[in-house]
Write a structure and sequence with these properties.
CATH class of the largest domain: Alpha Beta
Number of strands: 16
Order of helices and strands: EEHEHHEHHEHEHEHEHEEEHEEEEE
Oligomer: single chain
CATH superfamily of the largest domain: Glycosidases
Strand order of the largest sheet: 2-3-4-5-6-7-8-9
Radius of gyration: 23 Å
CATH topology of the largest domain: TIM Barrel
CATH architecture of the largest domain: Alpha-Beta Barrel
């Protein structure tokens, strides 16, 4: 069977979206912070880095987490001396230097051991919600308005906590040793305070565990996640809380991930939040140690990037870009300090981002009903509104095409890894025939 993809460069369908963002950056271990691998984020044009789980357990006791910045909760939140910004300053400066905008999670690092040993250290509701909101206000002022010898960084997104509904039982919850109702109250207090102080910034949340129960993970815990999602929307609507973006997570395969994205978009629309963008700020298709560094994982991540571009998601950040051991380090090899194969899917997607405008792709396969989704081949293509030189702007001098950025197509094959591309170039249209290889 031959599958034909028709790419029409005359029919634009919208901007190329910032879906190739990352969770944190590849901080290297050592006696002093080593940000040398952040250059890979720059080379891949990573638009945002979400600051969650930065530096390891407890944020390395140094980075990002509110308890690392404001170490004594009973201290005076209006006194700059109560804050320790040192290592977070260095981290954010390294991101900004490499052209990456920080996406700041206000809260704490996950304590995965809490449900095993039955003890948490920081994953508790703040004892004073209003004071916690004021502390967060000063953190924002430090990084965006120069307060306390600070900075004027561009940091658009400020996310209130992460996965507060991870487990229904507070004693098992690695992120929030309280009820979900308590989290909603914190969101109410913090979002109102921060939006009043910074009406120009995007205040949102809640780093939801997502809705994997709807298709691939039918266990009670995942059903709880769906219930909390709808309860949160109801609470925000009834209380009139600010919600500038809704963030959530998925670790499902690509097809299920996109079904979840459609479910969330539809639920937001029906709840009166049609204008609220969604951010899938943790994703990785079916994490597995066996896939790390493989072409299969690169193909799956490439497929996810394409599906996110084509689907009802406004932005996304893979979990994550650390250079470390474990299933959740798909981009960098901690033994060689070099990129895994999946990193190059981000490089490829950035070629689309450079061009800026996605174009229509039609699939022609008479043997399959149009409504049936196929997750074996994913494709996206983009053009620039004007001829741009590689590595910079400007029209080619004298009409020359030398060095001009061309239309770019990114395809990811998952179950057709032995396929052959037959590319026919026409004036404004490319047809790709993908056929099984004849091995004989």
């Amino acid at each position: 069977m031959t599958k034909t993809l028709t790419i029409d460069f005359t029919n634009t369908v919208g901007p190329v979206k910032p879906v190739h963002s990352t969770g944190q950056g590849p901080l290297l271990p050592g006696q002093a912070p080593d940000f040398s691998m952040f250059r890979y984020l720059k080379e891949a044009g990573v638009p945002y880095a979400r600051l969650h789980d930065v530096g390891g357990r407890f944020g390395g006791s140094l980075y990002v987490d509110i308890p690392n910045i404001f170490r004594e909760f009973d201290a005076d939140e209006n006194d700059p001396a109560s804050y320790d910004f040192t290592f977070t300053d260095l981290y954010l400066a390294a991101l900004v230097e490499n052209g990456v905008e920080p996406y700041f999670r206000l809260g704490v690092t996950i304590e995965n051991f809490a449900r095993i040993i039955g003890k948490a250290y920081r994953a508790f509701p703040p004892k004073d919600f209003k004071k916690w909101a004021r502390i967060c206000e000063h953190v924002i002022r430090h990084y965006t308005e120069g307060w306390a010898d600070g900075f004027h960084h561009t940091i658009t997104h400020w996310e209130i906590w992460n996965e507060p509904e991870n487990f229904a039982e507070p004693e098992l919850n690695q992120m929030w040793h309280g009820s979900f109702e308590e989290y909603c109250r914190l969101y109410d207090v913090a979002s109102r305070h921060l939006k009043a102080a910074f009406p120009h910034l995007a205040i949102g949340g809640y780093g939801s565990c997502g809705v994997m129960w709807i298709n691939s993970w039918k266990v009670e815990r995942a059903h709880h996640h769906v219930e909390c999602f709808h309860a949160f929307l109801k609470f925000v609507r009834e209380h009139g809380c600010p919600l500038d973006f809704f963030s959530y997570h998925s670790y499902s395969g690509v097809a299920d991930m996109m079904e979840q994205a459609r479910y969330i978009r539809d639920a937001l629309d029906k709840a009166g939040f049609a204008s609220v963008p969604t951010c899938l700020d943790e994703w990785l298709p079916a994490p597995s140690h066996d896939k790390l560094g493989t072409a299969l994982q690169a193909a799956e991540i490439g497929a996810a990037l394409i599906a996110l571009q084509n689907g009802p998601v406004d932005s996304a950040a893979i979990y994550d870009a650390r250079c470390g051991l474990g299933n959740y380090s798909p981009l960098f090899n901690p033994l060689t300090y070099e990129p895994h194969k999946a990193y190059y899917a981000f490089m490829a997607f950035n070629e689309l981002r450079k061009r800026g405008t996605a174009v229509e792709i039609r699939e022609c396969d008479a043997s399959r009903p149009p409504s049936r989704q196929d997750d074996s081949v994913y494709a996206v293509a983009a053009i620039s509104s004007s001829p741009l030189r590689e590595g910079g702007g400007g029209e080619a001098a004298g009409g020359s095409t030398a060095g001009v950025v061309r239309p770019f197509t990114f395809l990811s094959l998952r179950r057709c890894m032995g396929g052959v591309f037959v590319v026919r170039l026409e004036q404004h249209m490319h047809n790709f025939d993908i056929r099984p290889r004849n091995v004989g």
